[in-house]
Amino acid sequence: MVRILYFHAAQADSLLHDVVAEVLLPLHLQGKADVTVEDIRVPLTCWVEEGKTTIRWSAATTLRVAQGLMATLRDFGVLQGRVHKRLAPMYLPVEAFAYIAFHLHQEQPSGERLLSHPEWRLFFFSSQAVERFFVEAQQCHLLEYYAAGSIIRITFPTDSVEKYAHALVKRTY
Description:
The chain is built from eight helices and five strands, in the order ααβααββαααββα. It has 173 residues and is mainly α. It has two domains: 2-87; 94-172, Orthogonal Bundle (Arc Repressor Mutant, subunit A), CATH 1.10.10. It has a three-stranded antiparallel beta sheet with strand order 1-3-2. A hairpin with a 4-residue loop joins strand 2 and strand 3. Helix 1 (2-12) crosses helix 2 (14-29). The chain is elongated.
């Protein structure tokens, strides 16, 4: 449930989304596990200077925003540690993956594009990891996944997010 809330929070808050996609993902890809407030504050300062915020932030505001983002990401399980933050292992239950895939499928029905959808970056997933999740979700009868070369077909048992969420919740109990 926390991973689904995290996904929706990142969809609703572009700053949270961009910090994960443009700051934490590169750190993850570099193999860096430790995350400091400076790792977040420096890019935020650049974004402020580039005019990417609605108003110009002071240095104190930028620091508070960086600290708040780190606390939020800790609460969502993306970071771990009370004082010294580290990137947490990204565990995603298959039901949460299937729900997020369904949500993304609503806006992008192409199987190939869904497999390589940029929002999987929020979980630091490679395209191979996403494909393994689709295979696992199919094995759990949460969706149908077929791949033949570059042709990928993904279907879900319902076309309503409410019905799909209800089926996933009912399945876990």
